[in-house]
Amino acid sequence: MRKYLCPDYYFDTYREITPAFLLEVGIRYLILDIDNTLAPYEQPEPDEQILGWLAALDAVGIRAAFVSNNKAPRVELFNAKIGIPMFPEGKKPLRRGTVRAMEAMSAIPEQTATLGDQIFTDVWAGRRIGARTILVPPIKDKRDPFTRLKRLLERPIMRYYRKRKERVSK
Ligand SMILES: [Mg+2]
Q1: What is the CATH number of the domain that holds 70?
Q2: Cα–ligand 1 centroid distance for 57 (angstroms)
Q3: Residues at Cβ < 5 Å from ligand 1 ion
Q4: For the whole model, what pTM was predicted?
Q5: Contact between residue 7 and residue 161 where contact means Cβ atoms under 8 Å apart
Q6: Which domain holds residue 104?
Q7: pLDDT for 128-153, tens place per residue?
Q8: Interatomic CA distance for residues 127 and 123, integer angstroms
């Protein structure tokens, strides 16, 4: 379980994920989460940093699609200036949204990664379609009991990630 849900890569923010890194590890297609991955919940539109980051991916031919568990108006407004394939109410970790996103990008799992802030949503969704998984910490975490519980359950998985990384770098 820990191994299954352990992300392949962890970054402190999406901005650290460079086109060069993605190309080096053979990722050509990105399934993007929005909330708390690219922007906090209360930010309705992408800022210049997000637009710049997506433009840099596009410039090297890396394709992207949004799969969000949030509702259509949120995703549509966020995507208005970006215009990539989008799948609101993606119901991650279920497969439907992510599979449709891969189809929309003509992607193959071996060259695809999910990017998100939640292990039990984004990482799990990526695993289920045989893609790689990139985790970032939530930009601004909610403080409700359910979210706290999820973070608590994520902890042993992240401990496993750090241990595995130490092993690799030795
Ligand atoms: Mg999220």
Answers
A1: 3.40.50.1000
A2: 20
A3: 33, 35-37, 117
A4: 0.94
A5: yes
A6: 2-169
A7: 999 999 999 999 888 889 889 989 99
A8: 6
